[in-house]
């Protein structure tokens, strides 16, 4: 009998956590830390005129994934930043070139994020199983 456990994919990992009666918020916490890392880098790469776009960069975490978002569509002109997508992806109709600050932040942090994710997932699995 082998003591080896093989888990493939995040969905199976969450299922194994639930079967072991472990709380999947540990995964959400890990995703939050990683998203905060990428969001911090994105804040250094975002083009700035007023700083409003920089202030909308937020990390989002779930038990299944992490995400970094920028911009909002608030109707209040003072707080809304509806141009985040146009800034990031460009707007060909008016000749605005893309400035993919979110992608650049992920590119800079990718190796460190993957390394940290793998190490922490391995530690969680070893501790629980």
Topology:
Layout lengths: L9 H10 L5 H21 L6 H4 L2 E4 L4 E4 L14 H6 L11 H28 L1
Antiparallel strand pairs: 1-2
Helix pairs in contact: 2-5
Give a structural overview:
It contains 5 helices and 2 strands, in the order αααββαα. The protein is mostly helical. It has one domain. Strand 1 and strand 2 form a beta hairpin. The longest helix has 28 residues.
Describe this protein with a few key phrases.
129 residues; mainly alpha; two-stranded antiparallel sheet
Radius of gyration, taken over Cα atoms and rounded to an integer in Å: 19 Å
Low-confidence stretches: none
What class would the helix/strand composition place it in? mainly alpha
The major β-sheet equals: 2 strands, antiparallel
SSE ordering: HHHEEHH
Number of domains: 1
Beta-strand share of residues: 5-15%
């Amino acid at each position: 009998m082998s003591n080896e456990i093989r888990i493939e994919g995040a969905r199976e990992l969450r299922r194994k956590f639930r079967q072991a009666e472990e709380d999947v918020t540990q995964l959400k916490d890990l995703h939050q830390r990683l998203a905060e890392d990428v969001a911090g880098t994105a804040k250094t790469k975002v083009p700035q005129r007023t700083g409003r776009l920089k202030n909308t960069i937020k990390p989002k975490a779930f038990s299944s994934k992490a995400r970094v978002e920028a911009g909002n569509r608030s109707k209040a002109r003072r707080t809304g930043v509806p141009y985040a997508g146009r800034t990031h992806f460009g707007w060909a109709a008016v000749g605005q070139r893309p400035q993919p600050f979110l992608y650049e932040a992920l590119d800079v942090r990718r190796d460190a994020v993957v390394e940290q994710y793998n190490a922490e997932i391995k530690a969680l699995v070893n501790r629980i199983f």
